Amino acid sequence: MSNQASTLFDKVWDAHVVRKIEDGPDVFFIDRHFIHEVTSPVAFLGLESRNIGVMYPERTFATADHNTPTINQHLPVQDPLSANQLKALETNSAKYGISHWGLGHARNGIVHVVGPENGITLPGMTIVCGDSHTSTHGAFGAIAFGIGTSEVEMVLSSQCIMQPKPKKMRVNVNGTLGKGVTPKDVTLYIISKLTTAGATGYFVEYAGDVFRNMSMEGRMTVCNMSIEMGARGGMIAPDETTFAYINGREQAPKGEKWDKALAYWKTLKTDEGAVFDKEYTFDAAEIEPMITYGTNPGMGQGISRAIPTSDQVEGGKATYDKSLNYMGFHENESMLGKKIDYVFIGSCTNGRIEDFRAFASIVKGRKKADNVTAWVVPGSHIVEAQIKEEGILDILTDAGFELRQPGCSACLAMNDDKIPAGKYAVSTSNRNFEGRQGPGARTLLASPLVAAAAAVTGVVTDPRELL
Amino acid sequence: MAYDKFTILRSTAVPLPIENVDTDQIIPARFLKATKREGFGDNLFRDWRYNGDDTPKQDFVLNNPIYSGKILVGGHNFGSGSSREHAAWAIYDYGFRCVVSSFFADIFKGNSLNIGILPVQVSAAFLDKIFLAIEADPNAELEVNLPDQKITILSTGESESFDINGYKKHNLMNGFDDIDYLQAMKNEIREFETERIY
Ligand code: SF4
Description:
Chain B: Its EC number is 4.2.1.33. By secondary structure, chain A is an alpha/beta fold. Chain A contains 16 helices and 18 strands.
């Protein structure tokens, strides 16, 4: 059976099983563990109460991002509870010898942005973090997924977690994307087709022309959103684009180690004839710039379409009505022309340099609409520096935008970046749940291009008209 | 963290017939700032349960005194969204030991099992029957029998069996957790680690 065709996912998974438990999960080894201030303190308390230590501190990386402020980061954090969590991360990291990129550190930023940009994320790895968008790292051909705090404690204390092996799904998108259609649109499109629970129980591999031709930033955006259709994670086989991205990054293998790693990485692909439990194929030409109109990421559609009626969507009418009611929208209304109050560009979904390039491509030579408050938040200090170096900051400033400092910001609104109740925000983040961006906030998920078009016109606008 | 052993639970139930209840509803992010696992039950379903001025919303089920119990019955795709274990903590801390739905999001299900909450997945038809039984009589009791993997509506006698893997079942019934298991196999892990290329 050894030469049986297997999938990328199987190859990486099987290489990390320490022990198989009969009628139970696999004991699964974790190569890289990221921690942040919100989901780790209780795990460290757990270690203390059991009187056990951290088994491999060099395999864990700490960064502060979830509740950090995005202005005046040089000042003490105002909110005492946030300050307390940040302090706990720092103290725990120091105590156990874990690398810690705290607030103000040159490499600080959102955990799923800094991992890849510093070469910590590599193909064939297993990567976990107490944040569900850990799936981002799958863009490199890694198995990466979010875990709960009990599991954070498991990884700290034993470098393993207990995981039943998920089923396998492949999503193919073939053809060429149209003008103004970005990786974010591809993922919102897929989620709208599969629904928010459509991939629950599965691990997804993305394949086809569209992903082959996509940049690493774009692949990260797509893998990031895998969780929004219920999947544990998503991955893309590494190729020359991947290797070129990694080569030379701070913690990437060098010299002989690089050659050895590269030889291994080249084996990381799904064999011809390997079988998936489920497979979907979509045509790139069908995908428009997308926007969501409801309160879960599956409630999205092409920007030029009218809001569906309840009989056109799956699920109960009561739930659908509740959702539209929360949004203040009605069936059959057009999304185009809806007034916007806030625009947020950032997060681990769309907070990388390519996203700010896209945003600037529309903003350039235009002005921010007066009715719009815009939060432009880089994913990391490295991204922030790139924005300045490439002249994007000048474009933003000329158009009346301010650049903030890196962090999760309005993606989950744990810091002060909260959208006020009842206000509409076009957001490049990943979740439009009720209250996600602040109590009562109304979120429209979209790409950086759609966000830029809304920011300069003050209403939902098809970005293709401005390109 | 130790939790109570789970064997047979007989209780009234609180109905929440809403689909896609996500973890941001179960516990909004602004309540995740604690560094200890305490007091999360107060903020369970915070924004559905309280108005902006902290007065209770009378029409929300947790504020309705006729419903109570250790079992929460939710609509399809319960627990979607974030990996925050705080969602499961809030449910546990409020006093629930079991959540019933026709479908659970993966991470929520895993987190629940890890902290001693039993997620019971039933068919859509059986879920409807449970909702009907509670609607007919808020004092209607359910029996969740973990050893037999069976859930019964006591007022009607209708029952259905549910799945759980043998390992997790054993853990829940004995109050064990994964960390105990992993600590016991550290030598095996150490050997495995030395072979890793990263
Ligand atoms: S940006 Fe949002 S999704 Fe990403 S790590 Fe931060 S909170 Fe999580």
